[in-house]
Amino acid sequence: MSHWGMQRAALRERLAAGQRHAKGKIVPIPALPAFLKAVIRSGDRVCLEGDNQKQADILASALAALDPREVHDLHMVQSGVVLSAHLDVFDKGIARRLDFSYSGPQSARIARMLFGRKIELGAVHTYLELFARYFIDLTPHVALIAAVSADKDGNLYTGPNTEDTPTVVEATSYKNGLVVAQVTEIVAKLPRVDIPGDLVHFVVEAGKPFYVEPLFTRDPAAITETQILTAMLAIKGIYAPYGVRRLNHGIGFNTAAIELLLPTYGERLGLKGKVCTHFALNPHPTLIPAIESGWVEQIHCFGSEVGMEDYVAARSDIFFTGPDGSLRSNRAFCQTAGLYACDMFIGATLQIDLEGHSSTVTTNRIAGFGGAPNMGSDPRGRRHPSEPWLKAGAEAAPDANAALRRGRKLVVQIGETFGDNNVPLFVEQLDALALARELNLDLAPVMVYADDVTHIVTEEGIANLLLCRNTDEREQAIRGVAGYTDIGRARDPKMVERLRERGVIRRPEDLGIDPLDADRRLLAARSIKDLMLTSGGLYRPPSRFRNW
Amino acid sequence: MTTAQSNAASLSWYEASARQRVEALLDRGSFCEFIGPEQREASPHLSIFDLPEQFDDGIVIGRGRLEGSSVLIAAQEGRFMGGAFGEVHGAKLTGLLRAARMLKEDVLVLFDTGGVRLQEANAGELAIAEIMRAVIEARRAGIKVVGLIGGRAGCYGGGSLIAGTCSRLIISEQGRISVSGPEVIETNKGVEEFDSRDRALVWRTMGGKHRYLIGGADTFVDDEALAFRQAAINTLEMNGRYDLPLLTAEQQRLERRLTRFSPAADAIDVWQTLGIEAPTEIPGLPTKEFMRRAADKRENADDAR
After folding, report:
1. Which of A412, A480, B73, B120 could form a disulfide with B45 if both were Cys (CB 3.0 to 4.6 A apart)?
2. Interatomic CA distance for residues A280 and A341, integer angstroms
3. pLDDT above 70: residue A232
């Protein structure tokens, strides 16, 4: 290469073009359209900060309002596709290619647009995987990020929802990319500095907070008795025997039920201090009773949760907080923590096939992946031992030399045999396969691969797949907990009975659990208000969850 | 650190089933059911729609004792079709109210209903009219008909009309009374008029605290079966007068209320007009403090009862 420093020169050009619309680092809102047009070039890789929770919503609308004749063929690289503006940029022809992780609220529209060839799909990533690619081959030219406040030098305070921001800024700014932040307000002195100002080139004062989705709030009032039964099975049949102390809980009512049973059912089983002491977890409101009754020692968070700010700040013995007192979350670090330092992942899914692959993709929805595929995978790079990890490893390969045997992470899928609208959880073939065929994808979007899953819990019992010795056993173990679904009814009853004798399948009665004991009165909190009261009024639930 | 409590000891009215409520409300072991599920008087209409039936059609009726006195009781099961009124469901309540008049016994109605069952709407609407007539006739005969509201389905549609004819209403914070439900208002008038997903808005507009403050309910209790029981005992001790001067007084009160609160755009404005101290704090207040602030300020229908 004859000319070095070309990237830096390109950045200087962008900075100069942007400066014409800014005063110092501050871009006034009315100048935002002209500013974005000046700093973004057709064909750029753009990270428009859409995280699991917080959204750079003002910047997203401004980007979607650009003229596609002037700016086009953008390659969007962002973990969350959450706002309609995130897809409007494709509808209008401003962007063409997309690499992402999660698309929860836009799952139906993104599916329609993929089928309509409006979006050229790179891949659906896990979070860590997309973050990793930011540093290798998907480094953004421009990052449009969100923070709570900035000072005039561009130092940023992200508040409790730091989430992806440090990762995005690190990859962009240190590789000659341009970083633009939207903030609620510009202040003289920040509560704390989350992102140093010399990495941030421009700041837009939005005058209102960025949009945050309360993704992790589950109303205890909506927990069913079947979900309570699955929670009792998980606690007595998995948490207790393996002694799971370090773990991650997925989002869902089954895991919310587990959290609410710890101070009641778990206490009765004498498990306090023996399980669930360390979490990689968002601040789930349903964990408040367990925290208040002294079950939990430490929690590191991917992001925050709406309404939990004051509670978290008042519980700095448990959570990671900054010198200003508020939560410091970090998705990349927490995902790494969940992958390497947790012994168990437990979460729900929409479909499980006969091998044990699971997916949340259905034919008309592409929700992408949340944290589950990282949390719910066995890390081959792990070397430190722990009791649950070694025990699971021993169950999988009892005859191997113990000193050379890998342990196994416990990866538990929990759910009712029939889910929402009586849709069966168990299927002959995942919808993800049909989708992959139709869109010509090399890979079907599988959330948790069969060889990572160790247990499946339903109201009918627990299937321990670690103890299965061949594919036949595995299939029958899955059928054996599939209840009255077509998959469950097609079981080989004799083989299922043999698996039960070996402890591969365990029914509630095998564990000494009476399904009639699965009563809502067992929940440590039965409403959002109970959670608020247990928190001593520190938890301030958003309006939509209140019934008072 | 405090120890989180198991809720095993208390029975939440909001959470309880119709049968659990009846059992917790009456003297232990005193309940005797009329037309129980063993008689399988289920809806004749639901099977046409391929919908599941319930052997008691979602309402439990019978007789029992409350602090030793004999009372008639009806409890709707909000978890079966939202406690909605169908033909059999309605007929059971009508019959109970007519019996009350003959037996000279007071009636407790444990509302938990979304209103009329759409699959048998004509029969349901007729039932509402018959029940209201039966309530009025019973009251004219000196019988007290007391409504208890605090179930998950609230007290909506025709149920709220019946509640309006009752001698007295006992409500918890979770209880809701309104003719049109949140979704109905939103569907007809738009989300700008009423956002049905904004639950705080729903509760401050239709919930127990608001109804108590504007005299839409007479007694405010905690969400506990024992609190409902004690309130029912106290209420039945009051007199059951029902005559023209009383109705005239009630009519005047409602007209006054309409004028007084009509400029209000939100329940908080209503509470402000009432002169409640720090009205925005009302939804978050525990019962004792709420009652303190409500005392002397709330509207009530006592003149009319």
Report:
1. B120
2. 9
3. yes
- A220-513+523-530 folds as Glutaconate Coenzyme A-transferase (3.40.1080)
| Token code pair at residue B103 | 């037996």
- B198 and A548 in contact by Cβ < 8 A? no
Asked if B202 reaches chain A (Cβ–Cβ under 8 Å), the answer is: yes
ipTM value > 0.85: no
The 10s digit of each residue's pLDDT in B207-220 is 999 999 999 999 99
Q: Is A249 helix (H, G, I), strand (E, B) or coil?
A: strand
A519-548 mean pLDDT:
92
- Strand bridging mode A26-27 / A246-249: unpaired
CATH of A6-212, one of 3.90.79.10, 3.40.1080.10, 1.10.1040.10, 3.10.180.10: 3.40.1080.10
pLDDT of residue A1: 57
- Which site among B5, B206, B290 would you substitute to test the A interface, given the most A Cβ atoms closer than 10 Å to its Cβ? B5
Residues of B in contact with A548 (CB under 8 A): 173-174, 200, 203, 207, 209, 283-284
Interface probe for B, chosen from A521, A522, A532 (most Cβ of B below 10 Å), is A521
Enclosing H/E stretch for A120: strand A120-124
Q: Do A527 and B173 touch (CB under 8 A)?
A: no
How close, in Å, is residue A546 to chain B by CA atoms? Answer: 5
- What single DSSP character describes residue A365? B
Tell me the domains of chain B and their CATH numbers. Answer: 10-241+300-304 (3.90.226.10)
Residue A361: which of A121, A84, A75, A57 has the closest Cα? A121
Q: How confident is the model at residue A287 (pLDDT cuts 50, 70, 90)?
A: very high
Q: Is B8 on the interface with A (CB under 8 A)?
A: yes
- Give yes or no for residue A137 having a pLDDT over 70: yes
pLDDT at A142 over 60: yes
Contact between chains at B15 and A520 (C-beta distance less than 8 A): yes
C-alpha distances in angstroms, B295 versus B252, B286, B288? 22, 14, 11
Tell which B residues from 9 to 28 touch A, by Cβ distance under 8 Å.
12, 14-15
Residue A341 CB contacts under 8 Å (≥ 6 apart), including other chains: A246, A280
